[in-house]
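Hello again, I could really use a second opinion on something today. I've been staring at a protein lately and its backbone has me curious. You're getting the sequence in one-letter code plus the fold written as tokens. I'd be grateful if you could look everything over and explain what you see. No rush at all, and the record is pasted right below:
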Amino acid sequence: MKVAVIGANGQLGTDVAGAFLDSGDEACALTHQDIEIANVDSVSNKLRELRPGIVVNTAAMHHVENCEQEPEKAYAVNALGPRNLALVARDLGAVLMHVSTDYVFDGSKRAPYVEQDAPEPLNVYGNTKLAGEYYVRSLHNRHYVLRTSALYGKSPCRAKGGKNFVDLMLKLAAERKEVRVVDSEIVSPTSTRELARQIVALSRCNAFGLYHATAEGSCSWYEFAREIFGVTNTKVNLQVAGPNEFPAKVPRPCYSVLENRALKSQGLNVFRRWQDGLWEYLAATRQ
């Protein structure tokens, strides 16, 4: 199968392209230089040239503060981009796999969110990503929308300064005696490698629809850091940060745990515990 992976030089896109290649598919890696998803002509020209059977969209405007400062740009990329992909993929008869976010929820539920829960975004990023979901789901029947959470991977995330949370924690531990991390935000840390495997597995069926796709279990950022230091045997004084020590410039959900209910109901869930994904990631980075 020919698969067009959009955002293929990003943190997630790199692993998605690699996972499809490993599965014997022809992965066409598309970067921002190859395709501008906010421009429907660019989308149409490139996808009509390639004629893929599957289009995977990992491209987005991720930086939450920048989205708040540039809402029109965020809407163009995160909402109109998926719309353009849905229209063109529909016309070509291609399946569209679109990656969304836990930030479509406000975190007030304090229990794992399932696909049937009503979204209530807190910020521009969440609102524009939700709009993108609605465009995809309403315009193209042969779609997968996958919401995920707290991604980290081997390839750098340029929108976040190039370092994921795991690498940042290890860097800080090497530079200082004490590291302080908040324990008030609960997430499901998800490795891009595991999400890429899930995307490939889902692409092999015709169970189209909306899916939550995160590692199993949850933890606070503090607990995540503690596991990182424990697995790597890093000696550092890890402390819980005070409630207002790192004030957020933009509102974020304090609870972002997603339950992979739809994947499990279809017998398609390939995710392991978040600790397993972390161990695999750390083992790979040491090699």
